[in-house]
Write a structure and sequence with these properties.
This protein has about 700 residues and is mainly α. The protein has 24 helices and 2 strands. The protein has helices at about 25-50, 60-80, 90-100, 110-115, 130-135, 155-160, 175-210, 215-225, 240-260, 295-305, 310-330, 340-360, 360-370, 385-410, 415-435, 450, 460-475, 485-495, 500-530, 550-570, 580-600, 605-610, 620-650, 650-675; strands at about 270-275, 290-295. A two-stranded antiparallel ribbon has the order 1-2. α7 packs across α18. It is globular and about 70 Å long.
């Protein structure tokens, strides 16, 4: 659809109708309360209890549970018995947007990686050979929570971070103030860029390209108003919704109770595992994930709202790759090794982002004209902030990240530029994929070290490698719970209620303030957990250290191993030609894009190959069965029941999604209550970690 002449983005939305103001004191205070709760409880839940991740996806259980509680337990009765006091859809949309964007802060969106940074290098120094290298890098001391870079590994701020405070000791808050502000500048620039991009791309994707935004659709259904005199809207009033929701609750409940009462309650299986059965040739050479799978009801439900050929591509393309690799693996051929597949993924990512830029070229020109003050009278305007303001925010954010890396901490200019490019690509591609597919669990294959490690090692210094590593594991991997995606979903939900112009202009400042509050609360809560617990409370399933990936494993790989390779003058030898495989990925993606744009019936969409290129990752492996079943159900329903049956069954698939959210919430509460009380508990996980 072409951009409407002289209209703002919001005028083209399908409204839920919201006669009252959306940005009110009660919506702001309730949204902030939920944001603080999410920021504070997440590190305790995720790392101390080692529970199912409370955010964990772009359909975060904690935000969904919070909104369900408001809609069903508070707003529903008010609609029924005191409708003038009930929150309007506009107010609920602001609360939901604030809850969603706060989910990007306390865990994998930022603080899982960033909170340990001021002490993580010192966990690897001392007698370790890395000690001398760390000092040689001459890093700014104000980045770290120590008095001395040489003896920091012996200071309390470090030792107690990786052990535990004694009863008479307290958290050394003063040691953390300067590094928190220093790293906070980098994080602030990143968050500014993400929020600005969300304002810039939403109109192009939602209106011009008509991407379905399945997650935003589902979130909007959550806050839709009921008919006058009713407590709940049509979704929550549907029998199909509650039948599906209770079915999921019973299935997950049986597995949860089975953990506590194995002899009394049987577990209801919703997965298969043939890896121990298919051990003979030729099955032994088949990749592991087709031989086992789990049904994730959230993914199954979301796929119902995704375009059929998109959902077909999401499971078919990775399956084709597995079938191609099968005979090669059986013969010992490493042509399509995991490393080669990831190199292809990087090449495909470059072509994918180039396609995004090309398709939206007219919209980007509108933004450019607005930036330079030469806009045309019929140009569309930004709904929430002007395109000029959003473009300036984007420039300040990306320029701030580059300046922090290059000018403030002394990283080489080209490594700084490549790092910023990697961060932007990872988050923009993730946002585009989520808008098109509704995939709640993914991490896209944007690993620029595939390029760096094919350049002469003399081009880099250990310091450059250190800060590239910070960018890689700190912010590229943050695309797992991207601020951009949560902001985009929140803005789409707010736009669906057709708020007033005044409310639109207030929304982005409210979301910005929410990010600041969540960042402060989440950081303080994270430090409290690190200094008061050594290992997760779960005695059976834990990695031996609180947040072992963020506090130890990723720093070891990117802050120790990578700079050490640069200092030693050699990268690990590769069995594949990375440039060749990046070229293959680039070419295949371009061919798929051309076929998709030229033939409307072409079945394999580019996004399928992009996910296929990351098929060795945990996320695609776990999603495959659910994606296939969701596609199959939708195809059969449309084939034999048509559009009417498809619409009639929408509440059922919505019930699958919210049923899994409720199940997760129930068992999160059970585990947290038992853990806080000091009783024995069993962690019951239903979702990908």
């Amino acid at each position: 659809m072409a951009e409407s002449k002289g209209m703002s983005e919001g005028e083209l939305a399908e409204p839920l109708t919201s006669p009252r103001s959306a940005v009110t004191w009660r919506s702001i205070l309730l949204g902030l309360a939920i944001a603080i709760f999410i920021a504070v409880i997440t590190p305790y839940n995720d790392y101390v209890v080692w529970n199912s991740f409370i955010v964990g996806s772009y359909f975060p259980p904690i935000a969904t549970i919070s909104m369900l509680a408001i809609v069903l337990l508070i707003n529903g009765p008010l609609h029924k018995f005191a409708p003038r006091f009930a929150m309007s859809p506009g107010e609920l949309s602001i609360v939901l947007a604030m809850a969603l964007i706060s989910c990007s802060i306390p865990s994998q969106g930022l603080l899982r990686q960033f909170a340990p940074l001021p002490v993580a290098p010192f966990n690897m120094t001392g007698t370790n050979p890395y000690h001398d290298l760390f000092l040689e890098m001459d890093l700014p001391k104000w980045l770290f929570a120590v008095d001395s870079l040489d003896t920091g590994h012996r200071e309390m701020s470090v030792t107690k971070f990786y052990s535990r405070l004694a009863p008479d000791e307290s958290i050394p808050w003063s040691m953390w103030m300067k590094p928190a502000l220093s790293w906070g500048l980098f994080a602030a620039a990143f968050l500014t860029a993400m929020l600005s991009i969300a304002c810039l791309v939403r109109f192009q994707w939602a209106v011009n390209e008509r991407l379905p935004f399945p997650i935003a659709q589902l979130q909007s259904m959550l806050i839709a108003p009921p008919a006058p005199g009713r407590a709940f809207n049509s979704v929550f009033a549907s029998k199909g919704f509650w039948i599906a929701a209770w079915l999921v609750i019973v299935v997950h409940g049986s597995n949860g109770l089975h953990a506590y009462f194995p002899n009394a309650v049987p577990a209801i299986p919703y997965q298969y595992d043939l890896t121990t059965t298919l051990t003979d040739d030729p099955w032994a050479s088949l990749s592991a994930w087709p031989k086992k799978g789990t049904i994730f009801f959230t993914l199954l439900g979301v796929v119902y709202f995704t375009q059929t050929r998109v959902s077909f591509s999401l499971w078919m393309a990775p399956l084709l790759l597995v079938l191609i690799r099968w005979p090669l693996t059986a013969q010992g051929d490493t042509t399509l090794s995991d490393a080669a597949v990831h190199d292809q993924g990087l090449g495909a990512s470059f072509a994918f982002i180039a396609g995004v830029i090309w398709i939206g070229r007219h919209h980007w020109m509108v933004i450019a004209r607005a930036l330079f003050g030469i806009g045309r009278p019929n140009d569309p305007q930004g709904a929430f902030v002007s395109y000029r303001s959003a473009a300036i925010g984007f420039i300040l954010g990306t320029g701030g990240m580059f300046a922090w890396l290059w000018l403030l901490v002394g990283c080489a200019w080209w490594v700084s530029a490549l790092s910023v490019l990697m961060i932007l690509m990872a988050h923009v591609i993730t946002a585009r994929v989520v808008a098109e597919t509704g995939l709640a669990y993914l991490r896209v294959p944007v690993n620029m070290d595939s390029i760096i490690k094919n350049l002469p090692v003399s081009w880099m210094r250990p310091r450059d490698a250190f800060f590239y590593g910070v960018s890689h594991y700190g912010l590229m991997q943050a695309a797992r719970e991207s601020t951009l995606v949560f902001a985009q979903t929140g803005l789409q939900v707010v736009d669906s209620v057709d708020p007033s112009e005044k409310d639109r202009r207030r929304t982005v400042p409210v979301l910005s303030a929410t990010l600041i509050v969540a960042l402060i609360a989440g950081f303080m809560a994270s430090l409290y957990c690190y200094y008061n617990w050594v290992t997760p409370l779960d005695p059976v399933n834990n990695d031996g250290l609180l947040n072992v990936w963020g506090a130890k494993n990723w720093p070891q790989t990117w802050l120790n191993d990578f700079p050490t390779q640069v200092r030693n003058g050699a990268y690990p030898a590769k069995s594949q030609n990375s440039w060749l495989h990046m070229g293959i990925g680039l070419t295949l993606m371009m061919v798929l894009q051309a076929l998709t744009w030229r033939f409307s019936a072409w079945p394999l969409m580019p996004v399928g190959y992009l996910m296929c290129s990351a098929s060795t990752s945990f996320y695609v492996n776990n999603a495959a069965l659910s994606l296939f079943l969701g596609w199959l159900f939708k195809t059969l329903i449309l084939r034999f029941g048509g559009a009417k049956l498809f619409n009639d069954l929408k509440p059922v698939f919505i019930g699958f999604i919210f049923g899994e959210a409720l199940s997760t919430g129930i068992w999160l509460i059970v585990t947290l209550v038992l853990a806080m009380h000091g009783d024995q508990f069993y962690v019951v996980k239903f979702l990908p970690q």
